[in-house]
Amino acid sequence: MDNVPLVIASGNKGKIGEFKKLLDDFPIDLLTQPVGFEIEETGSTFMENARIKAIAVSQATGNLSLADDSGLSVEALGGAPGIYSSRYASSDKQRIEKLLAELKPFSNRKAKFECALCIASGEKVLIEVSGFCEGLITFFPKGQNGFGYDPIFEVSGLGETYAEMDHEKKKHIGHRGNAFKLLIPKLKQLLGSMKK
Question: Where does Mg(2+) bind?
Answer without folding.
Answer: 40, 69
